[in-house]
Structures are given as structure tokens and as C-alpha cells.
Amino acid sequence: xxxxxxxxxxxxxxxxxxxxxxxxxxxxxxxxxxxxxxxxxxxxxxxxxxxxxxxxxxxxxxxxxxxxxxxxxxxxxxxxxxxxxxxxxxxxxxxxxxxxxxxxxxxxxxxxxxxxxxxxxxxxxxxxxxxxxxxxxxxxxxxxxxxxxxxxxxxxxxxxxxxxxxxxxxxxxxxxxxxxxxxxxxxxxxxxxxxxxxxxxxxxxxxxxxxxxxxxxxxxxxxxxxxxxxxxxxxxxxxxxxxxxxxxxxxxxxxxxxxxxxxxxxxxxxxxxxxxxxxxxxxxxxxxxxxxxxxxxxxxxxxxxxxxxxxxxxxxxxxxxxxxxxxxxxxxxxx
Length: 335
Hints:
CATH class: Mainly Alpha
Strand content: under 5%
Order of helices and strands: HHHHHHHEHEEHHHHEHHH
Helix content: over 70%
Distance between the termini: 39 Å
CATH architecture: Orthogonal Bundle
Structural class: mainly alpha
Number of domains: 1
């Protein structure tokens, strides 16, 4: 009932006479169309550049990398949808990676739920720091990420390997069902979970409401603090699940393994068409974004693009994507 009232109030706002900005928005092509076009263009270019790009082995390599990236990006997506950002995902992934391999030697399969619970708790703590201490999510999560990275290095300054006798414990991730790798099945399940949360639950609607117009959402009765806390908890869940998947595929943990996913997770969300200003986008956009980055990462290596130049290309793609999705009507001054 409460959500119906919220929706009615927000709908009433939407029925106001259209402004110039609103008319421009209606005429704008949805960003996801650009993302799909970019994905198809990249596949075409790389397949022409190297005939082995579309080989079954290489496609499996792209899928494996994209699966892990997608999981952490799906979590990151929730914080961006509310207009925030989570820079702690890298530190959290590194911390969970080391803790997971350390715990699985001691408690076996219990390491899976324990590490997921740790990730959820860290995400929730990020939300509490944001809503209670009232500091920007950029600063709050930057600090949390640094703390988690330090803890990971204190637990294990060097990468920790899992004894070969315990490899069977990781079949949950590394095994297969009906010939389909469990890694992909788990990723599909994770995607379905986030899609269900955002599209078919009150929590998802509140995340979109908050990101679209935080003041109007508060006036309509949305609990802004609770919504933000849940968004950051979901971000922690995505990062924790990605860390477990990464550690399982590598049969070991690395205290610096998550660093690369800080920028990559944000890029996957933005390149897919989710606006940094919040309120626009979703899991399908993030899926397209993760595939774009997976194809770019693999394709540039396959066709022989210099490793240093690859970062320049990624940066250019991010700038273009933000330019296409950034809602300037929410920001009087871009700074």
C-alpha cells in the first residue's frame, strides 16, 4: 500500500507540464542501444582482426572473465543507481579472496556462506557510514577499501594457494552440470537475483526512486537511509560472490586480486548505459557493459594491441559512455 502511494505521488510529479529538459529526454535514444551497437561492432572488428577470436576456446575465456566482472558490477550497479559509488569493492574482493582460501582449509564448505556473510556485513557498514556519519560515499568507501586491503595483506602478504587435495571443495564453482560450467550457471543465478530484486520488489523500486529524485522520494515516505544501506549491502554481496568465484578458478587467494575490479566494475556499469547520476539503468545494461569490457580485454590481446595503449582505449570508452548517459538536469554545475 505504501509503495502504491509513493508511486502515485511520483507519477503525479511526472504528469506536470513537460519542460525543455523533459522534451529533450524523450527525444534521446536510450543509452543501451549505443552499448549494444558498440558490443556488436567490437565483435565484428576483433573477429576480422583474428580468425581465432570466435573460436570456442576463446569465447569460453571471454565468458569466464565476464562472469566474474559481471558479478561485482551487478553489486556496484546498486550503489550507482542511488547516486552513490562503491570504491571498496576492490579491497573487499582482496580480503574475501584471502579469507576464503584460508577458511576453506579449516572449515571446508562452510567457507562459502561465511564469506558471503562477511561481504554483506561490510557492504552494510559502508551504508551505515554514509547515512549516519553523513560523508560522501566516494570518501567512505575509499577509506573502507584501504582498510580491507591492509587487512588482506596482514592475513597473507603473499598469494595463498589451496592444497591439491582440497580442490574438490571448489567444484561448486569449477565443476559443470549437463556440460555447462558451474561458473556460468552461478553467474546466471546471480543476474536473475539482482534482476528480481530491482524489477519486482519494493526494495528495487525504492532504489530507483531514490536515485531519480532523492528529495521527492523522502517527501513521498521512502526511508532513504534504509534504502542506501540495502544498496551498499547488495554491492558487498556482489563483490563477495565475485571474490569467491575468482579464488575458486585460481585455486588460491591473492591480497591484491581485487584492485583491478574497482575501475572495471564502475566501467561495466557505466558503459552498459547506467547513469552515474542514478535512477537509470539496471542489470541488463550491466550485463551488456560487462560483455563489452570482456570482449575488449580479450580482443585487444588477441589482435596484439599494446598493453599500455589498452588503458587509453578503455578510458576513451568510459568518457564517451558517461557523456551519453549523464543526466545534466540533476546537476546545476558539473564539478
